[in-house]
Specification:
Blueprint lengths: L6 H10 L3 E4 L1 H9 L7 E4 L5 H9 L3 E4 L2 H5 L5 E3 L6 E3 L1 H7 L8 E7 L1 H4 L2 H14 E12 L10 E7 L2 E6 L11 H7 L5 E6 L4 E7 L1
Parallel strand pairs: 2-3, 2-6, 6-7
Antiparallel strand pairs: 1-9, 4-5, 7-11, 8-9, 10-11
């Protein structure tokens, strides 16, 4: 476990950042899983990306987006902890305001590496809610850091380039909170029907889960 300028300038700086091209076997398998039929609902849990929306809609599917990691850093969610000294995230409020969809709405979910950066109190409830809003047989793609990544591993936004290539762009300075080993990942998705691991690059373990 691991423990400005103007808005226009910030946007310009973001677009100026170089992107890292990365081939992903897990993403390639995910795309094969959702190839047919058209009209599926795909939930992207990373930051909004025009390229992701364009790619998903180009497959004939509908794209939905929720940046739950960013939302989890809303200072307004913090409430006093039981000891009266520290603060904690208001779990009930967070879950009421995020991933609040009808049961079995989505055909597939792009989880990316969100669990590695989420506050500990949110990880299990978020995965349980994703399970609830995903259809039986629906696919989920997740990325998990290996221990070699280290707590200072940078947070990246994932942009879809093509069916087997992702472009990584440095995002906010979120800190890596934990590293899951294979057993931890299996326990995290114990309610799902199957799980498949792919050894990715850059100290990343890719996981394709089917509900």
């Amino acid at each position: 476990m691991f423990g400005g300028g103007s808005g226009e300038q910030a946007v310009a700086a973001e677009h100026a950042q170089a992107r890292i091209s990365r081939r992903s076997t897990g993403f390639q398998e995910f795309i094969r899983t959702i190839a047919n039929p058209e009209g599926q609902r795909i939930l992207d849990l990373g930051p909004t990306s025009p390229s992701n929306i364009s790619f998903i809609t180009g497959l004939g599917h509908r794209s939905y987006n929720e940046d739950i990691l960013l939302e989890s850093h809303d200072p307004g969610l913090l409430i006093p902890a039981e000891d009266g000294k520290a603060k904690r995230i208001d779990l009930d409020r967070f879950m009421a305001e995020n991933l609040n969809h009808e049961k079995a709405l989505f055909d597939a979910v792009l989880l990316w590496d969100v669990p590695d950066y989420l506050d500990e109190s949110l990880v299990k409830p978020v995965i349980e809610r994703i399970h609830k809003v995903t259809k039986p047989g629906g696919a989920l793609l997740g990325f998990f850091h290996t221990r070699d990544a280290g707590p200072e591993a940078p947070y990246y936004r994932y942009h879809i380039a093509d069916r087997q290539t992702l472009e990584l762009q440095r995002g906010p300075q979120f800190r890596l909170k934990r590293v899951f080993n294979n057993r931890h990942i299996e326990n995290l998705f114990h309610d799902y029907g199957s799980i498949k691991f792919f050894l990715g690059r850059d100290n990343i373990r890719e996981v394709l889960v089917v509900r």
